Amino acid sequence: MLGYDLRDERWIPVRMLSGERERLGFRELFRQAHRVADLELPVPPAASGLLRILAVMTASIGGHGDERLDDAGAARDAATWYPLRQRILDHGLFEPEAVDAYFDDPRRSGRFDLFDEDRPFLQDPRLIRECVDPKGAPNPSGVNKLVFGRPTGVNGAILFGHFTDTEPIPVPAAEAAWHLIAQLYFGPSGQCTPRRITSHRAGSGDAAPLRKSISYFPWGPDLFTSLVLAVPGPQGGPGQDDGDCAAWEGELVHPLAPLPPATWPGRLLTGCFRHAVLLVPSADRQTVSDAYITWATHEKPVPAQDPFQILDRRKDGEFQAREADGARALWRDLDSLLLKDSRRDVRRPPALEYLPRGLRPRLRVRAYGFDQDGQQKDSVWFQATTPPVLQWQEENHRTMAHHIRRCHAAAEETADRLEFAALVAWRIAADATTDPSPKAKVKIDRRKPGPWAAGALSRYWPAAEREFWKLAGPQHTGTPIEKPFVHAALNCLDEAIGPANRADIRVARARSRARAMLLGLLPSPPAG
């Protein structure tokens, strides 16, 4: 029967170092990784999940001589594992024989076929029997439920295309693979297609492991380097275990059985899914016409720290993954990626630890985020890449790491002051009973903020980013850094108020009061 073999089908969009854009399957992606500049999946959540999948494959393919990155012996000893990784990086490519040995291993036969009858890639074939209605007829979820961005249900809003559940439009198999990965890593919690395991038809599930999160990857000059560095060191998860396997290996876990531990690296990166998916192909196996999407387990998630996430300390003292925010630019997280020893309330991603010293001047950070709530609402996904900043990690360049923190802190403090000053200005201008004199107390009403605060902040953050990168250099360490941010805030405040409004005497007084509040952030000149 025809299938869609992800090893050789061209389903992963990439940009080559030559500038050409191509699509590659798993096999050619690894064979040509040293010639690939970047992944170009148009769905960042899928790229974030795919990199974890590729990291597990890299651990088995990447090697030097007879040693592999996922060898049990090397994994138990950091003093052995990191030098092995360096030898692989020095070699500069994946050996074609190792790539073929991995993908042609008889133990993985059929496991990379998107539509295999027994073990379709990352799917559960049992759903066709278990997702049924009370009469026992198949009860699929619909292809619109699979594809992020398509409306589902009777009240689904039509934003990006006219897709309805009554007339679903099939999705090409390559794109279905992207959204399959995105669902497993970022799918919602709450009501889902019921799954009949016992006499009870449970129809609700938990959020996917990366739901509403942002991930940070060390990004090299080519995909080969990025993939080798994406393999988390053994300290990034539970130790190597003889029973470790990737999601496309081993046996399917029974939905009601206890979950196996998140062993390194397979289950840590691909074994914590909370959803089960099964794609329904067209007759020619080139499109997906329907899909089953339901819960995979109701067991409590096994303890595991994802190696690509920043952890922030909560008020109760525990740590949680930093949530994605579509309005927050990547540079505002930079100090959390550089600082280590001096941050007690923030833990940087383990994947950014112990980076090769010789590569650091060329290493950037790639971020993939998905701004969502915990249940059904998806706001915006994004990706961003920094300049080569990992050379400034605290253990490598303490002065620059702390300079970056100073710049970020100054930008954030200025933003807070700008918002408050704009709120005060609006209150003075809009409320005739408010005393506009310079030292009078002004009581603001955040339920009626007016348009100036939001308008000023929306202009400020892009301007602050430009000033931040101007200051992000060793030549600026130890110098005052407040002035550029304050001046940017002053300009943004003026633009938000507008020249026509400033002609009004009361607005002019309000503007003067707000500007004075911002100028108060500037350090006093030295005496004498």
What would your notes on this structure say?
- The protein has 528 residues and is α+β, with helices and mostly antiparallel strands.
- Helices cover 34% and strands 15% of the residues.
- The strands form six sheets. The protein has a three-stranded antiparallel β-sheet with strand order 2-1-3. A three-stranded antiparallel β-sheet has the order 6-11-10.
- α12 packs antiparallel against α13, α12 packs antiparallel against α16 (505-519) and α13 packs antiparallel against α14 (482-497).
- The N and C termini lie far apart (87 Å).
- The model is unreliable at 153-160 (pLDDT under 50).
Give the SSE layout:
Layout: E1 12-16, E2 21-24, H1 26-31, E3 36-39, H2 44-61, E4 63-64, E5 67-68, H3 72-75, H4 78-91, H5 96-103, H6 127-130, H7 143-146, E6 171-172, H8 173-186, E7 190-196, E8 201-205, E9 214-219, H9 223-230, H10 266-270, E10 275-281, E11 287-295, E12 311-313, E13 319-321, H11 334-338, E14 346-347, E15 364-372, E16 378-385, H12 398-430, H13 452-471, H14 482-497, H15 499-502, H16 505-519
Helix pairs in contact: 2-8, 2-9, 12-13, 12-14, 12-16, 13-14, 14-16
Which descriptors would you attach to this protein?
about 525 residues; alpha+beta; three-stranded antiparallel β-sheet; globular
How would you classify the helix and strand content by structural class? alpha+beta
Mean pLDDT: 92
Q: How big a fraction of the residues is strand?
A: 5-15%
Sheet having the most strands: 3 strands, antiparallel
Envelope shape: globular
Count of DSSP helices? Answer: 16
Q: Count the E strands.
A: 16
Please report the distance between the alpha carbons of the first and last residues. 87 Å
What is the CA-atom radius of gyration, in angstroms? 26 Å
Low-confidence stretches: 153-160
Strand order of the largest sheet: 2-1-3
Helix content: 25-40%
